[in-house]
Amino acid sequence: MKTYDFVVLGGGSAGFNGARVARSLGKRVAIIDGARKLGGLCILRGCMPSKTLLWSTEVLHLARKASLFGLRIPIAEVDMRALHRRKVHVIGEFADYRAKALESGKYDLYRSQARFISPNRVELADGTVIQGKHFLVATGSRVSEPPIPGLADTPYWTSDHVLELDRVPLSVIVLGGGIVACELAQFLRRIGAKVIQIQRSPHILRDYSCDAAEVVQSAFRGDGIELFTNTRIQGISGDRGGVSVVFEDLSSGKLVRRKAAHLLNALGREPAVEGLDLKAAGVKTDEAGRIVTNAWQQTSQRHIYAGGDVCGPMEVVHLAVQQGELAARHALGVRKLSPVDYDLAMTVVFTDPPVASIGPGEQELLRRKVSFLKASYPFNDHGKSILMDANYGYVRVLAEPRSGRILGAEIVGAQAGELIHCFSVAMAMKATVRDMLRAPWYHPTLAEILTYPLEEIADQLP
Fold first, then answer.
1. Cα–Cα dist 332/280, whole Å
2. Which of 170, 294, 351, 400 has its CA 20 to 30 A from that of 28?
3. Does 346 reside within a domain?
């Protein structure tokens, strides 16, 4: 039986980076990953393949608007086989790089599933037992299947299936209104599929403000997506002719039926902890199945840590990396550490227009009873966005009412995912609106739009 200083379950973003830090501290590290292919969710079936496809359809969308910009592009259409080949090539390079790092010899890599047989030991599928002084559970997440009548008995796609498409489907019903659902619904529509999207909540992207959701909903309907919100699904069925979904429109009280060739289950993900036998390790989970951790990523067993999607609170890669690194440093005795600051957590939805946010939003600040000033400015009144025909959206800034320190920001509009980093730097440095306004902002740029809400707040400060 081999013994290691640090044993990592899962070679994705949290696991790999935790292992990398542990190895840099001179410790003996084992990585156990039983996936068919190394790389983790983000590289293989998440961030990188989806954003590769979304960028292609954004280019396609712009090409179709060529006449608006005084250009002649006679034909702009998708070549799904070529699109698929490019995606495979792009993510292949990232996956190969990660696989080489895992197989570099710095770590003992076990290509197997593992389960705990005690708080200090795991057993591999072939019966091998590995002992660890410290563990990091980072096995990621999987698509969940909510108890909706008929869903389990109806063949459906997950995001994995959509990312592997090499043809344009005739029609798709998308269940859900979260990030994955929205990104893939717009992708499917722009490649030419008829898309019907059904969301339970009163608006899509329920983790964002109603204002942000309304902007994206307007854009979706403008793209031709048939979008239903505030619904309750009554039943799902399917046969060789396709799928049928019956749901109640709670706004009107009417029953609605929609049919399509395919069904996409994008109703969320759940921690991939099945088979780990966490009970044998004495590791507790919450009602949603997430592993319960403290500020240092420790579980109920203090030598066992968790990071990434298995523990949350957000399914975001940069947070998974931070959690994995923090777990390794804390487990191995590095001093003067700080917990992950979730008030600096960014999220980005890669729809068109994209949505990005950082810090607590208005409702969270109200819940905390924190006073704040806010100001917004629309994209349709800004020079660079107007010339780009990027008129959807706004920038909103939240700031402390006496000092003007930036508390949070939300951007809905062109390049939101890039622009939000201006606030990331400012908030990490505890900067005020006046601090940000001391910097020059080039004209005409998209970034320049940030100055308008900053100036409005600055005018209200003591």
1. 24
2. 294
3. no
pLDDT tens track for 261-271:
999 999 999 99
Q: Which of residues 232, 267, 302 is at a domain's end?
A: 267
Q: Which domain holds residue 243?
A: 159-267
How large is the average pLDDT for residues 180-192? 98
Distant-in-sequence, close-in-space partners of 105: CB < 8 Å, separation ≥ 6: none
pLDDT tens digits along 421-461: 999 999 999 999 999 999 999 999 999 999 999 999 999 99
Do 35 and 123 fall into the same domain?
A: yes
Cβ contact 143:265 at 8 Å: yes
Q: Residue 40: its pLDDT value, please?
A: 85
Please name which of 412, 380, 417 lies closest in space to residue 396, comparing C-alpha atoms: 412
Distance, in Å, from the CA atom of 256 to the CA atom of 380, rounded to the nearest integer, reads 35
Looking at the fold, whether 18 and 104 belong to one and the same domain comes out as yes
Contact 353, 392 (CB under 8 A): yes
- Quick one: which of 427, 429, 391 has its CA closest to 412? 391
Q: Does 275 lie in the same domain as 263?
A: no
Residues 263 and 282 in one domain: no
**Domain-terminating residue out of 247, 267, 287:** 267
pLDDT band for 240, please (50, 70, 90 cuts): confident
pTM for the model: 0.95
Q: Are residues 7 and 122 in the same domain?
A: yes
| Amino acid code (one letter) for 227 | L
